[in-house]
Amino acid sequence: MSDAVLSLRGIEKIYNRGRQNEIAVLKGADLALARGEIVALVAPSGAGKSTLLHIAGLLDTADAGEVAFGDTVMTGLGDRRRTIARRRDVGFVYQFHHLLPEFTALENVVLPQLADGVNRRDADARAQELLDHVGIGPRAGHRPSAMSGGEQQRVAFCRALANGPRILLADEPTGNLDPATSDQVFATLMGLVRDTGLSALIATHNLELAARMDRVVKLDQGLIVPG
Fold this sequence. Notes:
Elements: E1 4-15, E2 23-34, E3 38-42, H1 49-56, E4 64-69, E5 72-73, H2 79-89, E6 90-93, H3 105-115, H4 120-133, H5 149-161, E7 167-171, H6 179-196, E8 199-203, H7 207-210, E9 215-220, E10 223-226
Parallel strand pairs: 3-8, 3-9, 6-7, 7-8
Antiparallel strand pairs: 1-2, 1-4, 4-5, 9-10
Helix pairs in contact: 3-4, 3-5, 5-6
GO molecular function, one term: ATP binding
GO biological process, one term: protein localization to outer membrane
Pfam families: ABC_tran
């Protein structure tokens, strides 16, 4: 039995396969994420951080290699099973919040729960609990346009955790914020991950933030190496 919540084994990704100007972004990347571990993924822009996260979260497929959640190999599963696993096991946070503008903060956190079959009363309660936890409970009825960038990103964190995933994947989650707000929002994210016992892989170019995580790895010429 594997102790890793997420395992990436020999991940390869080539763009323009079979054509001229092939670009091998990932060349056999290996990574194991332990239960409750927060790992920073650092690399220059364009090195393949987002590609790796999308493959890890089943949003994209690798050209070679395996993705496993615990002891379950996800590679090769059909679309329906991948969708269910992605919805229940993985939470995503991006540089931009991608909240639905026509819905309130509470409704944005409720929606993924409804998609997973949770009844509205329980979904509302869970959403309010998460928003309270990150300090913006009083803003639950506001739409994204009426919230600051830091508040919007906190809502995005809550949405990512709404279905109780085992794995959080974050792609430059504070990269769109000013330094002071970035530090505050990152502290919120770390506290939320610690409190929920999640395993997290967080891509960042901010080495100061990376140093506050449990471990740092680098994406170097298509391979994962120690930071």
